[in-house]
Amino acid sequence: MQKGISQADLVGRMEGNIDPTNISRIEAGRTNPTVITLYRIAEALEIKLVDLLNIEASER
């Protein structure tokens, strides 16, 4: 939401083939994405993977 893009826009920005409904499931917490899917989402959002996961430096 902070980037102001829709789920469909996100899928369009992502490398690889991903079903738009999968993004909805990930966002709602109904499925666990693979690491590569998380990486592709972060790349599409132009953010670091660690920022997507919201991991604090002290937790690493």
TrEMBL record:
Coiled coil: none annotated. Gene3D superfamilies: lambda repressor-like DNA-binding domains (1.10.260.40). InterPro entries: Cro/C1-type_HTH (IPR001387), Lambda_DNA-bd_dom_sf (IPR010982). Residues 17-52 form the HTH cro/C1-type domain. It holds the Pfam family HTH_3. GO terms for molecular function: DNA binding. SMART domains: HTH_XRE. This is Helix-turn-helix.
